[in-house]
C-alpha cells in the first residue's frame, strides 16, 4: 500500500519537505472531505487484506458411514450367523429329557 499515492488520489496535497540521506519527509494538507476519502480508501485496502472467514466446520455425525452397522458381540450378522462366538455344544443333561 502506497499511502502517499492514496492521499493524492483522495484529493490531499502531498508536499516534499526535505530529503536527508535516504530519508524523505512529507507534509499533507487538504479539506475535511478529502481526509474522509483518504480514511475510506485506507479502510478499503485493510478490508481487502483481511483473511476471509472460513466456513463453519460442522461436527462429524456419530453414525457409522456408508450404511455400515456396528455389531455387538453375539448380535446377528447380515448373513444371520452369530459374530465373534462359536456355537455352544449341547449339554448332556438337556438331551436326556
- The whole-angstrom Rg is 39 Å
The H-and-E topology, N to C, reads as HEEHH
Spans of 5+ residues with little confidence (pLDDT < 50)? none
Q: Which structural class fits the helix and strand makeup?
A: alpha+beta
Number of strands: 2
Strand order of the largest sheet: 1-2
Question: Tally the helices: what do you get?
Answer: 3
Keywords:
alpha+beta; 2 strands; rod-shaped; 97 residues; two-stranded antiparallel sheet
Question: How do the strands and helices of this protein lay out in sequence?
Answer:
Blueprint lengths: L2 H8 L2 E8 L2 E7 L2 H18 L42 H4 L2
Helix pairs in contact: 1-2
Describe the structure.
- It is a single chain.
- The chain is an alpha+beta fold.
- It has a domain at 3-49.
- Helix content is 31%, strand content 15%.
- A two-stranded antiparallel ribbon has the order 1-2.
- Strand 1 (13-20) and strand 2 form a beta hairpin.
